[in-house]
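Researcher: Next sequence.
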Amino acid sequence: MPQALRHWLYMHLGRLVAKSALIGLHAKLKATSANHANSAMALSLPPELQQFADRQIASGKYTSLDEIFLAGLQALAEREQVYQGRFEALRSEILLGADEAERGELLDASLEIDAIRQRLRSRYPEQ
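Model: Next structure:
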């Protein structure tokens, strides 16, 4: 399987798995809330975060603290997916470079640095 296709599949399937896990978590939280309607989860927020949550609810963006936590967990899961994807892409590039180096396909560092400097100078001329 071509590396680009493998990377694309990994990224998109990873997102689906993360979304599926979040949907499952949301269903579990709803079921727990329904089963324990009279019990509350003890949670202590710093005052600035409590005020932020209160403002979000007052604005109508969220209807409860549960919704805010779910949105936060989803954002965290998505961010982790992005970081994992970037890590995998970087890892692939490093392995590709190592393979090229083993085959003797090396570049002259001083020439490459000079080329980069030239591109930067043309892109950002001195003012």
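Model: The chain has a mean pLDDT of 78. Helices lie at 3-35, 47-58, 65-102, 109-123.
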